[in-house]
User: Fold this.
Amino acid sequence: MKSKRPTILAIEDEAALYRVLGPTLESHGYDVHQAQSAQEGLEAVRTLNPDLVLLDLGLPDRDGLDVLQNLRGWTEVPVVVLSARHQERDKVLALDQGADDYLAKPFGVGELLARIRVALRHAVHRHREERALEVGALRVDFQNRRVFLSGEPVHLTPLQYRLLEALAQRAGSVATHTQLLREVWGEQQEGQTHYLRIYMAQLRQKLEEDPNRPQYLLTEAGIGYRLRAE
Amino acid sequence: MNAPFHREDRLVSVVVRYLKATAVIACCSLLAGVLRQPGDHAPVAMLYLVGVVVVALEWGHGASAFACALSILTYDYFFLAPRWQLVVRDWRNLLIFISMLGVTQVVAKLMDELKDKVREVRAEKARSEHLQQFAESLAKAGTVSAVADAALAHGARMGAMGMEVWVKAGEGWEVYPPAALPPGLHGSAPEPGEGPGVHPLWNAGSLVGVWVLRFAAPEAVDLALLNASVSSLSMGLGRALAVRRESQSRLEAERERLRSTLLSSVSHDLRTPLSAITGAASALLDPGTELAPPQRVDLLQAVLDESAHLTHLLNNLLDMTRLESGAVRAHKDWQPLEEVVGAALARFESGRGPVPVEIDLPPGLPLVPLDPVLITQVLVNLLENAARHSRCSPGLLRLEARAEEGRVILGLEDNGAGIPEAYRDKVFEKFFQMPGGPAVGGAGLGLAVAKAMILAHGGEIWIESGTSGGARFCISLPLEGKPPVLSPLELELLQ
Assistant:
């Protein structure tokens, strides 16, 4: 019988990092387990059936992307990858291959908890249609396909709405350029990031008080975009 | 030099010369016949004298000897009694005549010698002018390849149809012009004796090169000029190689200097935050130290702040190393500036809370081809630098952009003390710290990294005076190519 506390498996070989993760996550109501290698990790996912996996991309025995590919072959467990700096390509690859979000080392505990919360929430709602999203002054009504800023309706063209919807449905998690292009424009347009930029600029114009300092539509350089969730 | 001769031509020209000599003597005879007075031999003799001298002047020694003989015969036949016969009655006149002609022969010979001498002197002059030109171009040549170019030009002037200059470089040989042979270092150069026109170049006792020249008519080559040129080239090449060696060792010394500066700078800048962290943490753990909760919080905050410092320093070091090893390429994509500005501000403020930055990005700014990861880093580094130097007078930072023909210019203005003109280039050097400025962490690499990243984009970075006494850091990014445009269908969907 599964305990009420969500289980997190940290596939992480750095003892120093686990030293912090363990107690912190435990104190926030998670059961934390550690695996110190890819091999151990894959085994642990099978036996523990965790609610979320923290996967370090720099594991000693196997490439983290390999592990992710393997996992995604048979489970939809939310995965947040931990990566070093300057590996934007790896992060994008991981996200496109099914990771839910990423964290760049060194990261603060606040960021970690936020990403975990969001990933768990999306997992729960994956098979259940969300009705609306509210963050700050922004409200996105999925059922009626309407958007409100501080209660005032905002007019968006169909493509603009689809883009906002794609971001809103995974609010709090990052969406890569590829994912957004595929979901909004279709498979054939995967390489056309300029569409994305132009439309994101339009969304910022319409929804942000200061498009240069976005509150909702955050840019992750080299990776994609993220809609703030809280 | 000289046109090639054939035996036939030679014979023909000799015959022509002698025929011309005959014509002159015939003229003299006619004139003499017209002008003479009976018994008066002097004018006749003078005329023949003039004729022989003219022949000597024009056609040389041999022809004038022939003219001499011819003159004697015609004089005897036509003018000496008895006329119309070769017999002579009064030998004295004939003797005088002959001796006068003898004098002309001496004169002719001297004239021949003089002409030869003049020709020789002219050739000498031309040769030394040639050499002078070569020496000047060698003196101007600063590098080995410039020396080789001068040699190739000079060889062409000497009439060579093809040539190479082989230069000794370490164990192997370089060849100029590079297109002459497959590229790369060659194992061995041609040896003298392997063919005509292979000239080894010796300088200071060692073989520095080989000059290979191919002439269409090797016999016609001015050997004196060639040998003098070989010596000049040897010296010039020796000098250029010495210059090259010297600049290589200077580079090496510079590299060493940077390496040791890096070590001392890094060690200092790493130790400073680390000692703060150690101090704070050990104080928190020390059972003997009594700390009130706000003090504990403050120490812990110090640990976090100094860690951020360290992170920033390490990031800069890593960036600099990667940039220098050429591992960084700008992956350009057409981006709106507001995205990188937004990302940079978010990162800048994530450690320190909101900072007053005024942003002015006009709405009509075009998309700019840039690498978002690199440019975000550049902006973060500039913001960090501006904040650090504005600490004394915490003021507004102002970030603005404008589009120009072919490029976009970004400017970040701070409210600090400004940067004097003398330092405006130096601040972008690695490890440079402004004398008298605040002690800064980051090892003075932030601006060097920013500059390298901008250069990787083909852009420029410079400093101007800000409007309120501070400094304005300016970046220009080239607008190359055409930004992608939306198709009319898509534009329609925008309505």
Notes: The first helix of chain B runs from residue 7 to 35.
